[in-house]
Amino acid sequence: MRSLIYLITEHDARIPINYQHALSSALYRFIKEANPDLSSSLHHSRDFKFFNFSNMKIPKKAIKGPEIELKKGTHVMFNFSSPSGDIPEATVAGMLSTGRMEILNAKFTIEKIEILETPDFSSLASFRTLSPIYIDTVRNGERWDLMPTDPEWRHRIEENSRKKYAHYFGREYKGVFEIPEISRMSSKRINIGGQWWRAAHVEFSVRAEAEMLRFIWDTGMGSRNSQGFGCVRYLE
């Protein structure tokens, strides 16, 4: 299930360019408002959390050093998705209950929440990232952030997708999983909690069964999805 959240700023404000942690915290507050037990289980879980959100789309903005300047009345939107009905339902319920959203010192009115229709997937889908994909490996005993140009990237993405699928559905995904094409790629460094993560905006295709493609659309591609990595837009 995926929602498109429309916001409008209530006053002039600034938020950090690396706002992902602050946005994630705001979403947790909405879940807690509607379902405290669900919020607690998600927050304390060391397993996959199975929700995802995109970068915020801000048509009118100004970059001031490490911050984004938002004028009063600025329109903002972002995607929020999850394969689990409980998580998006609690998030939307919390939003409707409060009618407002706070990201650090920036206050927004929630204008509209649009529930998006799930695409009709077949066996091959093209995607474009709405937030960069993160995946890593271990080399020489240290974390190594992978880019799509690295030969290991495809393998680690497939491994991660199969592992998340098995954890969520309680059964292994035994179908094909291939990334036959990567047509565009750009690197992005994001600071979360004082730590830098190197991720990639990508346009790519995936060949898999329809259930896996829907799962990718709902959950995100790669790891750290609940921190705002790997949200994808379906192209065809």
Keywords, separated by commas or semicolons:
globular; Alpha-Beta Plaits; 14 strands; single chain; four-stranded antiparallel β-sheet; 2 domains; 236 residues; 5 helices; alpha+beta; five-stranded antiparallel β-sheet
Principal-axis shape equals globular
CATH class of the largest domain: Alpha Beta
Strand line-up in the sheet with most strands: 3-6-1-8-7
Number of domains: 2
Main sheet, how many strands, which sense, barrel? 5 strands, antiparallel
Give me the Rg, rounded: 18 Å
CATH topology of the largest domain: Alpha-Beta Plaits
Number of separate helices = 5
Residues in β-strands, percent: 35-45%
Question: Which regions have little confidence, pLDDT < 50, spanning 5+ residues?
Answer: none
How far is the first residue's CA from the last residue's CA?
18 Å
Main structural class = alpha+beta
The CATH architecture of the largest domain can be named as: 2-Layer Sandwich
Helix content: 25-40%
Element string (H = helix, E = strand): EEHHEEEEHEEEEEHEEHE
